Amino acid sequence: MHNRRCILTLLVSFICMYYVYNIQSVNIARSTTSSLLQYKNYCPDKIVTMFNSQGRLGNQMMDYATIYVVARELGYVGFLDNAHDNLNRIFKHIELPDLGEPCRTRLEKSHWDTTTGRKFLELSYNRSTNASDMAKVTASCDTVVFGHYEWVPVLFLKYLDELKFQFQFRDLFMNQALTTIDLVSRLYLGNTIPLLFVGVHVRRGDYQNHFNDLYHIKLLGPEFYVKAMEYFNDKYSDKHLVIFLAVTDDNDWR
């Protein structure tokens, strides 16, 4: 019975989300505030950036967070590497601009040296590090460059509220999500048991090669998700009707 309920609610959610996310897309103009434009033709003295930032949205968010918190910690100006437009399309309050030509020229002259960035990471992970140690690393360096996929979790916590503000979804995406929940809720009008929504993220796409190349393992199959859904049903179904909302980057996968 639990299997049938899990599969039914998952299929319903896929259908509703397919409908919502295929609504005609809306173009969101790039932010043109003066705080972003001022660095197009000007490079400040002290900057933080990341060399060759790669990946899709999740990785871009982590790269952004690293640049943002380190710049805040040091009092430098943070710059993205061609990621502003994509992040600004999705989130309301993206503050960091892309590198302008003056900054790129400066970085190319130093061959995008990541020495200070690596040293900063070493100190940030060392519990015995104090503020003076960090100051010594950056005192003689006006540029802090990180390699891609380098993160500073200890500073994420320190500036967590600011990061949450930066990553507030635009109304378009919030409305799509709320519409999905509303569509599913209407299917159960008159139901006397409260609904409990559980999100299911099925990441596939590029992760199939990623898992195979790095860990020599395959992606999780349907049986994993069914088992996980049964767990939530067993835990909450005595007081709730559990509804699973599935999100995936591989709509053809079943």
From TrEMBL:
It is an enzyme of class 2 (transferase). Transmembrane segments: none annotated. One of its GO terms (biological process) is carbohydrate metabolic process. Coiled coil: none annotated. InterPro entries: Glyco_trans_11. It comes from the Eukaryota. It is found in: Golgi apparatus, Golgi stack membrane. Its EC number is 2.4.1.-. Pathway: Protein modification; protein glycosylation. The keyword Glycoprotein applies. GO terms for molecular function: galactoside 2-alpha-L-fucosyltransferase activity. It is a single-pass type II membrane protein. This is L-Fucosyltransferase. It comes from Diaphorina citri (Asian citrus psyllid).
